[in-house]
Fold this protein.
Amino acid sequence: MKNRTFYISLILTVSLILSSCSSSRQIDSLGIVITMAVDMEDDEIIVTSQISSSKENASTSNQKSAGSSSDIKYVQGRGKTVYDALKNASLNYDRELFLSHNSIIIFGEELAKTGIGDIINYFSYDIGTRETAYLLVAKESKAYEILGLSYLTDDYLLTLIENAHLTAKTRNMTLVEYLRYYFYSHGLVPGVVQLTDKMEIDYEKKEKSPTRKVLDITGGAAFYKDRLQGYYSGEEMIGFNFLIDEIKRNPIVFETPDELTQGSKLFSTRGRYTTINILKSKTKLNMEVRDEKPHLIVDVNMRGTIVEETKGLNLSDESVRLGIEDACSKQIEKYIDMAMYKAQKEFKIDTFGIGIVLHREYPEVWKEVSKNWNEVFSDIDYSVNVKTSIIRTGVIDLPINIIKGRE
Amino acid sequence: MNEEKVTKRQAIILIILSRLSISISTMPTIDIPPYNQDMWIVVILSAFYSTILVLPLLFLANRFVDYNLIGYMEVIYGKTLGKTLGIAYVLFFSFSSVIAAFNHVDLIGSTILTNSMNGLLIAGLGVTAIYTVSRGLIVRLRAVEIFGPVAISTIIILVILGIKESDFSSLFPILSDSTLSDIHSGALQLSFYSVDILLLAMIVPDLEDKKDINNIFFISIITSKLILVLAVIVTQAMLGLEQSRHTNFPFNLYVRMIKFPNILERIDVVFILTWLITSQARVNGFLYLAVRGLREILNKGLKEKRIVIIMGILFSVITFILTNRYPFNLIRSQLVKIHKPMFLIFIIIIPIITCIVYLFRRRSIDQGQRLLKNKGE
Amino acid sequence: MISKNINDNKNRIRYLFGNSSDLVFHQFETLSETGAMVVYINGLVDKSALNDSIIRPLLEDLISPYDIKSTIYISEIKEAKTLKDAVDSIIDGHVLLFFENFDYAFIMNICRYEKRSIQESSSEQVIRGPKESFIEDLYVNRTLIRRKIRNQNLIFEDYIFGRQTNTKVSICYIKGIVNDEILAELKARLNTIDIDGVIDSHYIEEHIEDAPRSLVATIYDTEKPDVVVGKLLEGRIGIICDGSPVVLTLPRLFIEDLMTAEDYYLRPQFATYLRVMRVVAFFASMMLIGTYIAIATFHQEMIPTKLLLSIATQREGVPLPAFLEGVLMLIFFEFLKEAGLRLPKPINTTVALVGGLVIGQASVDAGLVSGFMIIVVAASGITEFVNLQLRELVVLYRFVFLFLGALFGLYGISSGSIILIFHLVSIKSFGVPFMYPLAPYDKEGMKDFMRRSPLKKYNYRPKYISSKDARKRSADNEE
């Protein structure tokens, strides 16, 4: 009995000593990577990591709230492969880079045009990375330039991306979504990030330069396999999001048709636009074979509420409401046309996954066309049917800019 | 106090766990013909094939309720031949156990403990194996009865958690991309992976109610296939068909994708721990069968504890050599070739021959049985 | 043999007791001038009863010693033929009465000594339900049980253990409900006991339990009569030991540790909720620290990003690795607990104050440990007290899991719990599987497991514990 206790404790101690130097890591010895930017220069991969380090924070918890932006560090490494570059970064940084919390991967535009396959490969090979990280393309810049902004706190960019559903003008895509569709014959659209100029508000800084750089994620980057083909603009992204049925509670702005005000005495000549906020939208894609050619039918069924209207329409009138709904539908059709035009005529790539629909509905047809689907796609016909229903009209019934009794 | 027997529930859970162990870790299901979205049909069909393929063993088990596999081999073939076959089965059990352990160490080493040495992992596994195997069958089954429901419900919860992120549109169209022969061949191949019927064949004499044998088999096979179908569907929907095929541990990758910001992220460890339970059931289950078979062949000359320790150490050493020499992928590609003949020999050919021999020598064997029984009374 | 001569007897008894000073010999002559002597131990007998009910009638009324039963006012009079009987009865606190020319003595029971009154239990307090608890006296304890089971099938059987202490021990059970195999097994084990002294019922427990080397106790103990009665009604057997307020019941199941008497006096839903909380507390107190260290040093990817950053900030500047940090705080906590447990109340508050301050604030401010670790240690400390019955198991296994977590991460924790569960299911208490009704699974038994079903739903007594005829109510009333 005594011997056994002795041996057990001996084994425990020995294994404690053995393992403590090999596998466990203390949290404070890690450089936790929040965002990663990958570029290619002179055939070398440059990996820039944004690190959330709490090093400057004092050991007491009282000062935790002090300046969260001062403790960010950027670590850069160069190498032949991504892993090489990451390990080389430790030559100029004192902590082990910890990738499991990396939530964003940004690619430079140059790299995206030559192909990101090599880089993405690493992220699914290694167990230490996070496959739910968002992919972004740095539009018209190097990826590491994006990271250089002074106000970039730990989760600024992440929150920016995760709020993509607030407008329909952008989108987000994670690595796993990218890989899910990577092997299909259609294109992929990850998000975009770019630096744009904004007016400087701070008086002291304004004297030096009147503008400042901010991050902007409008639009989407169209990929075919691992190569960047071009960008969707913000308005085209609305059409895109309608086509892939990713519309959440987003606004739609359209010109109020003039004829709706006829017969009403109270109307403004100044207000041009009406804004509808979408409550729920459902897009159904269907395929048909017409004259031995695939034909796409887009059915959008949308419910919304009027959030802004400046013309003074009489919304209690049935015909006025129908007219507004009609105008809204037309606008949505226009957005979809824009997106389809760009995909069919410029990129010549099916970025919407219409191939999947064809595959589902006409497996035989798909077998024939799947080899050169993107060519077939670029000249298929399509028809769009949008049905808008306005189910709420806000809390006032007359716009403020109309002076009552003006006759 | 009466000696405790194995209940139906315990046997069912043991077999389900042992089956799940392989099917949710490396998920051979995803990488067999027809390689497309119809895999779930293949899985369901394979339940049918698995049943047909093990009919001879089931027949024998129902015939000789007082003997286990190795026991009735001796009764039917006589001492020498019976013992040789028994040793063959013991070797097969040890082989299955080592392969399962290899899989175990590989999965742990390449997922949650990437920096630990194989030796440590195998030491842990070996100690657990020796301890649990030495406790005997009844205790092992009671433990399984506690772990089993936990593991199964965790897997189902994981399946439910991932539905939000999955895209089921890629699972259509059903049955249009694959030929019928592809599906059948896939189902057949899949059923070659499940050798767990041997677990049942070895514990028949300990069963509480011998009439349950067929019931146990059917319920366990159907339940495990249902769970597998769920797992396969969500994995394919989450990862896409191609990506899931080329991942070593598809369900693990699937669990990594489950994401509820700031609440649940990267919970693959939960899956691994659940899987550990199933894996323990398989590794230790087959090791136990090997020990038990060996003891029966050696006619209780040795103490059981000594056999356990010798087998446990042998098993750890072999696993250690294997894991430090080859990557699992290599072994796996070799295994695909080995699995079929192994299955054919041990689950089909030997039992069929045994059945035939039994039918020829039926009278003398039955008489011998009756004599034995009378003597016992 | 008892001599006819009083002085002879007196000398022999005095010799047997080695001139012990608490022995009293009182010689006198009765009304009929017969020589008489009472012998007793000072302090064990009721002096006023001795004077009024024995001495006075003897002096005033007794004519012939043969009429003794019609003369003195005592309900329990026996005759002692041998000197050994006489001596034994003196030790029991009886009064011996010798007459001249009689070769036997009379034993009269007027035993009375100081004992604690029946109070509320201090270790198992309840809000609702019976509050009385056992005391140190065997006879009172038996009465407490007998008063609750008014049935002739309630049977007490007496044993005497302890070569030196000669302690009385009673086993009790209900005939017809008790499982005869378990009863026979218990009697067989009791007969093997050879012990110097029995000071508390735990002495008995250690001699008859199933798994002496395990941390798991296989015999249940309680201070409350209502708990014992509940267990007797399920077919269990109780062991009452003189001098101990703790009554043992057996066989014991794991789930009994997660139950309290109060569970049956509350609404079933609420009782179920409490049981779930206790199970959570059990696992938390055992594994929380180990799991935290495993996650914090091996599986940092599991922690949500924001939480990880906050932990990282706190750990900044802490000199110790998480493992040592945990061990340090845990040991400190154990010291504090042990010190607080036995101290007089005024000092106790000081210790708690200083300890709390040191643990809580100063160690964080000094940068010795991180705030998060304090929370974890405190949580596992508090949850430890939720299941007092399991404390011995929990406290020691906590360190084991701490080691395993620091060595192998969650892999170690899971291997450890696999071994723990194997250990638990391999234990039997008097032939009953310890983890029943979970393993082996029993549908009827599960009605009173994590879920406390309404009392109407219990149709059978526990399968392995009670006798074969396990029906609780007649079949017509079954729900």
Confidence is low (pLDDT under 50) at residues 56-70 of chain A. Chain A has two domains: 30-55+70-232, 245-407. The longest strand of chain A covers residues 273-290. The radius of gyration of chain A is 27 Å.
